[in-house]
Amino acid sequence: MTAHPIPENAGHWWLVCGKWRRLHAIHSAAITADQMRNAIDDNRPIPERAACGLRRRWWMPGVFSRLGRRRCTPCCHALGIQPGYGTPANENHREATKTRQDGEQQ
């Protein structure tokens, strides 16, 4: 359950802003792990530009948002990935779990 810039997340942070309606992709070079850790510890957002061009103050989403919040469609198109729910890494994990469960039920 990660929003960190790992390969499965297209090398981007998946963060939220404002009313937390969508997960947006922020390039990994824009925010270091230390900056994110400090922002979380200090409970403050990080100003940066998303892949879709939106410039806002970003927060690390909670666990349920990382799993089920809808991804920003323009961010997904900019990265060349499919729009969907949850971070790309978590979406892949959910699909693998579902496939395993379906196989066990047969």
Tell me what you see in this structure:
- By secondary structure, the protein is of the alpha+beta class.
- It is 39% helix and 15% strand.
- The protein has four helices and four strands; from the N terminus they run E-E-H-E-E-H-H-H.
- The strands form two sheets. A two-stranded antiparallel ribbon has the order 1-2. It has a two-stranded antiparallel sheet with strand order 3-4.
- The longest helix has 18 residues.
- The mean pLDDT is 87.
Can you lay out the helices and strands and say which pair or pack?
Layout: E1 12-15, E2 24-27, H1 33-42, E3 46-49, E4 55-58, H2 63-68, H3 73-79, H4 88-105
Antiparallel strand pairs: 1-2, 3-4
Portion of residues in helices?
Answer: 25-40%
Question: Shape from CA axes?
Answer: globular
Give the end-to-end Cα distance, rounded to a whole number of Å: 28 Å
Count of extended strands: 4
User: Mind telling me the C-alpha Rg?
Assistant: 14 Å
For this entry, what is the oligomeric state of its chains? single chain
What structural category characterises the helix and strand content? alpha+beta
Q: How are strands sequenced across the largest beta sheet?
A: 1-2
**Largest sheet report:** 2 strands, antiparallel
Topology as a string of helices (H) and strands (E): EEHEEHHH
Uncertain spans = none
Percent of residues in β-strands: 15-25%
In DSSP terms, counting alpha (H) and pi (I) runs of 4 or more, how many helices? 4
Mean pLDDT: 87
